[in-house]
TrEMBL record:
Keywords: TPR repeat. It comes from the Eukaryota. The lineage of its organism: Eukaryota, Metazoa, Chordata, Craniata, Vertebrata. Residues 737-753 have a biased composition (Acidic residues). TPR repeats lie at residues 167-200, 453-486, 487-520, 521-554, 555-588. InterPro entries: Sel1-like, TPR-like_helical_dom_sf, TPR_rpt. One of its GO terms (molecular function) is kinesin binding. This is Intraflagellar transport 88. One of its GO terms (biological process) is inner ear receptor cell stereocilium organization.
Amino acid sequence: IMENVHQAAEEDDLYSGYNDFNPAFYSEFENDVGFQQAVRTTYGRRPPVRNVCIVFVFVTREPLLDLPEEKLKLLEKKINTLIEESCMAQSTGNLQLALDKAKEAHREERALVKQREQSGSADHINLDLTYSVQLNLANQYEKNEMHPEALSSYKAIVKNKMFSNAGRLKVNMGNIYYKQKNYHKAIKFYRMALDQISNAHKDMRSKIKHSIAVVFIAMGQYSDAITSLEDIMSETPNITAGFNLILCYHAAGDREKMKKAFQKLISVPLGISDEDKYIPPNDDTSSKMVIEAIKNDKLSQMERDLKARAEKYITTAAKLICPAMDASFASEFDWCVDMVKNSQYVQLANDLEFHKAMTCLRQKDHNQAKEILKTFEKKDSKMKSAAATNLSFIYFQEKDFDQADKYADLAMSADHYNPAALTNKGNTVFVKQDYEKAAEFYKEALRNDSLCTESLHNLGLAYKRLNHLEEALDCFLKLHAILKNSDQVMYQLADIYELMGDRQQAIKWLMQVICVTPTDPHVLAKLGKLHNDEGDKSQALHYYSESFRLFPCKIDVIEWLGVHYIESQFFEKATQYFERATLIQPTQVKWQLMEASCYRKSGNYQKALETYKEIHRKFPENVDCLCFLVRLSTDMGLKEVQEYATKLKKAEKMKEIREQVDVQILQLDCLFLQPCDSNHSSGSSRGERLSAKMRSLTVSNEPYEADSQKELDASYMDPLGPQIERPKTGAKKRVDDDDDFGDEELGDDLLPE
């Protein structure tokens, strides 16, 4: 071979002349299609074989051998990238994109396997990559709730003997069957997965056992669920299993075992390190920066979430052990509090005591609630403020406004930024009719918490009482933006627009109220009144009729309907309404007179006469009744005409005497109201006695009724005004932002019935 090798001279260049060409041929090569095609092909790019040096031949042949393997490696890298993109899309919630990427990765992986088989390198197939692709595809099918496809993909993985530990995926198949409510198959696959996991993996076995218990709970087989949960609590206890065990005992009605499970629950270690690690050991700036960085990182958030969940489970379990309606509620709750005080959750004891007070309050046991809340006066400022706020609320509901004011001040002194305390303070001032000062407290509460709806509502009422209608309207419009479906807010807006003289806007807002509460008779009556004021009698009739249908005892509605049908000459229809009014107010003579008048105008004179006689029997000195009796008796030719005429004259004379007496009483009252010296004091006393005596001579047209509603209404005045305008009591308990008790609010459901 070496004989054919010729060594080149040192001055000769092996590649000289390669770039030399005649420019005249340039255009021909450029326009020659065959030449250009040859240049683009591999054959055309292949350098010519020369016998100059054998080494040159080996250099050109080696890349041809490595090129297919490099392409396959690049394809594997592309598949891995598609899997990563699929997982990232799933993490951002784009499930459809995640599924598309998973399908594309699966297609590319199948193509890769086929190429390796064709190239004779099947031994180099990446099984880990195949497993990752198929598992990701199954997961994405499951996330997109394509359960049949997901089950098919999982089965393909599980049946492939080349994948080690693939049997664990039967847990995922069990989860799908659970979502499909195929509980028997779910338990079957959970148990198959459990059999394939060794005892060394305790945590995984515990989680599968818990899934089995959850399925049993869904099936209502609490005894089987208890068996699984007890097994978990004896081997690897955790708060979720402990809480579910208490729930199962509660469903089974075993109170004693609930208490034992509660003791196990509060003894479960959370594995959370002490919070002192977030306190810098010195004034080193770098240490402080590190602590600030880890204070709110993902791990810290997970620890806080775990602690909050544990506290929620414990408080809920305590409520289950101590049902509110049980006779032993107090003693059982005290037992739970003692257990918690001796555990790692000692800070929850105050919250449980607080819950006990709130439970007593809901049971209308105000004395017990006040007794418990007063024990918080020596606690930390936050608990003290929350307790004082609720005490203020209780006394306010009991109309003991002095005590309500006292505890509102106490709550504010403990925490001046407590919006509920400021709201309660404003309420105590509101009932004293100092609306300007009440508005200041409400505004301060809103400065501390712009979403305090109670303060915003009551501020609108205060402005309304001050006749600052524009400011009141602004408050309720803001409140409507927060509470979109609050019928009270929309009613207040309608009322303000009515006060401003804009009836159309008032009707618009009342129509929105009807959309929320279509069966409110008072709102329907209000709509009837507004339409009547607008002159739309047909709409007024519709809404008044609907109001009467829902609540046939509202006098103003009955009166309007009766008068409307009289004006429309439908006397028989009007009679029904006045009969109803007579049943509601039997001591009011006008309803019976209207009923008799309807009979008379409809031509039923006999019935009218009988009604007038019944009225005369109850109200013997009523002049109007006697007038109609005389007229009817005359028209019908009855012999009682003279008798009724005589009674009419006497009644008119008595009426004249009463009117004269009333005039004299008025004159005497005016006389005794004039300034006088001490010498005339005895005369004044005699004048007052005379005035009282003359008043006693006044004869009423109504029969005497000691407990009449009229007297009660006159002597009673609700200091909060109508129910719709009552200020809300913002008695909130703010104990801890992460605690369930922190968001609890006492609303109108605690108002005494």
